[in-house]
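Margin note from the TA: students keep mixing up input and output lines. Inputs are the sequences; the output is the structure of the whole complex. Example:
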Amino acid sequence: MQMRKATNYLLIAPSLLLSLLIVLIPGLLTLLVAFTDWDGVAVSPSFIGMQNFQEIFEDRIFWKSLFNNAQWTIMFITVPVVIGLLTAILLLRRKRSRSAYQLIFLFPYVLAPATNAMLWLNIIFNPVSGVVGYLKNSLGMSITSPLSSVHTALYAVASVDIWHYWGFLTVVYLAALRQTPGDQIEAAQLEGCNSWQLFKFVYFPSIKPTFSIMLVMIIIFSFLTFDYVYLLTGGGPAHSTEMLSTYAYTFAFSAFQVGKAASVALFMSIMGLLASCLYIWLSKNDLKG
Amino acid sequence: MKKSLRMAIGTMVTVMMVVMLVACSSNGDGKGKDGKEQITLWFWGAPPEHQTTMKQVLVDKFNQSQDQYELVVEFRNSVDKDISVALSAGQGPDIVYGSGPSFVIPFAKANKLEPLDTYAEKYGWKDRIIESVYQSGTVDGKLYSLGNSLNTEGIFYNKKVLKDNNWEVPKTVEDLEKIMDAAMAKGLYASVTGNKGWKPVNENYTSIFLTHFAGKNTVYEALTGKRKWTDPEIVAALEKSAEWYKKGYLAGDDYTNLTFNESIQLLADERAPFFFGPSLVFQFASQSFTDDIVDNLGFIPFPTVGGSSDAPDYTLGVTATLSINASSKHKDGAAQVLDMMMTNEFMNEMTARWPGYWGVPLKDLKLETDKMSTLSKLYAQSIYDMIDGVNKGNFGYYTGVFFPPAAQQAFLDIDSVWQNQITSQKLMEKAQAEFDKDVEKGLLPPIPMPAQ
C-alpha cells in the first residue's frame, strides 16, 4: 500500500511541479505585483497599496474594455453556439459526407490566428486591394471597412473570430450529439416526437454537460481574448475594440507600468473565476449524482 | 511489445534527448564557430533586400575589419518586446536596439544598460554627434544610447499630381488646406496615411500638430514644466488635428485601414497629392516610386503655422537607439560596432542602398550624393536640411523620442479625440497626470532647447 502511494505521488509529481512553476508561482507573483509600481525592470518596486486599482477604476478605457469584453461574451455565447449547434444537427443526418464537412468547417480553426487576420485584413477589409476596395472603387458603392468605425469595429473583429471558431463548436457538438443513446431516439420517434421535441427532450439533455462546459469555456476565453483584436485593430480605433487583455498589454509593454498591467490581469482572473463558479453551479446536480 | 520495437523507441528517445540538449545548450563563452567572440544585435524585421544590405554593409564589413569579433544580426518582428523581456531577465543581445530615448531610461536606471561615456571619450562621439541628439541619449548625465538615424516629420508629395492639377508645392498650412480641399473635390485622397497594424503611427500626427500648430517653444515649455499640457495653445492644436481628421485630410475613412507601405503606394499611384509622415518612409518609397516614376516624389518639411518657409521647423526625432547590454561579455566589441555605425562612410553606403533609415546624426555630415540614386539623393538632401535646421535651433519634438512612456501613451490616444470619444481638454488632463508621474519617476529624457 505504501509503495503504491509513493508511486502515485511520483506519477503526479511532474504535472504538479509544472503547475506550480507555470501557474501557481506566476499567479502569486502577479497578485503581489498588482500592489506595486513595478515597471518590469526595476529590482526594488515600491508597495503602493490599492493605487493601481484606484487608477484603473478611474480610467474610462478600463470600463470601455470591460464593457467590450461583456459584449464579446454575449456575442460568443450566442452566435457561434447557435450556428455550431444548428450545423451539428444538420450534419447528424449526413452520415457519409459529415467527415468532409467537419474538415472544411474546422479549417479556419486550425489556421494560425495571424494567417486568418492577415487574410481578412488584406483580402476582405483592405480599402485598396480587398473586397471592400473592389466594391468601393470598381463598383462605386459607398462602403468603408467596418474596422475603421468606432461603431462597427468590435463587431467586425468578433465576426472574424466567430468565423474561425464556430467550426470547432460544430465538431464538439456533433461528437456529443452522436453519443445520444439510440434507443432513446427511437423511443421518442415512436412516441411521435417532431424534430424540435426530439432535440429538446432527447438530444439536448444528452449533450447538456458538453454544452455547459463549452459555455463556461467560451465565457472564460471571452475575457482572455487577445489575438484577433491585437492583430486586426490593436484595440482601436479610439479604443473601440479595447479588451482587458490589450489594455493590460499596453501597460506592460508600452507604458512600463507592469504593476498596473498585473492589476488588470487580476481582474481578468476574477472574471474567469466567476465563470468557473458558474460551471460548478450549472453542474452541481451532476456532481451530486 | 516486441524487443526490437522497444529498442527502436528507446534509441529514438535517446537521440531526441541528445538533440534537445545540444539545441538548448548555450555557448557559455559566446564564441562563434571560428573561435571569434560573437557580438549579437537584434534588429527589426526589415524587408529581405534591406536585410541583405545590412549584412553586406555592416556585418560583413565589420567581421572582415578585425579578427577578434564576429557580429551576428538577428531580424525580429517583435524586437521591442523581445528586448524588453530579455533585458528584464538580464539576458538579450550585446547591442540593444531601442525605439527611442524614453525606451532606454527605465533600463538605464535599472542598470541593464552599460554607460557609454568611456567609449564616447575613446571614439570622440560627443564631438561627432549632433549635440541635441547626443544629449537625448543621456540619463542622469551619463550616456546610454546613440540615435542611429535622424527622423523628421514632413510632406511627401507627388510632383506629377501637383503639376497635372496646377497646384504649387505648399509653403504654408493654408496652401496645404486649399490643395487638400481641391483634391477631395476631384475624388482624390487629401493625403494618404494610416495606422493599420501599428497604433503608434499616431505619434507622427501628435508630433506634427504639437510642433507645427502649438509651436516648438510651447511644447518645450510644457516638457520642462513651465506650462501645463492643458494650455489653450496645446488643446487648440489637438482640436485642429481633430478638424483635419473629420474633414478627411488624413486619408479620409481609411486611416485605420492603411499601412505606410500601402499609403506610399497610393501616392505613387497618383491617388493623392500628399503623404504626411516621418522621413523614414523613404525606405518604403523605394518599392513604389520605381525607376520610371522616381522623379515624381518630392519631400518638404511640414510648414509651421505663422512660420517662415525659408526657415522651417523640424520635428526632431531618431528612428531608433543603440545601446550596450550591461550583461554583455563583449562590450568593447559592441562599442566598435557602434563606432562603425556613427561614420560618414557607413551612412553613405547604407543610404545609397537603403534610403530613409540611416541618416546618422553627425555634425560633419558628408554625403557623396553623386553615387546615389534619385531617392537616396532626395533623402540625403532632407537630412542635410534637417541638420542645418536643428543646428539653428529650428526644431520641435517627436513624441516617441522626448515624451516619457506613460505620457506618450496618452498622446497616442489622439485618435480618441478625432473619433469624439474624449475631448482634447480631457485627454490633455490625462496626459498631464501621467506626465507628472513620469517626471517624478525620473523618466523624462533631457530636453534640448529650441531657438526662440
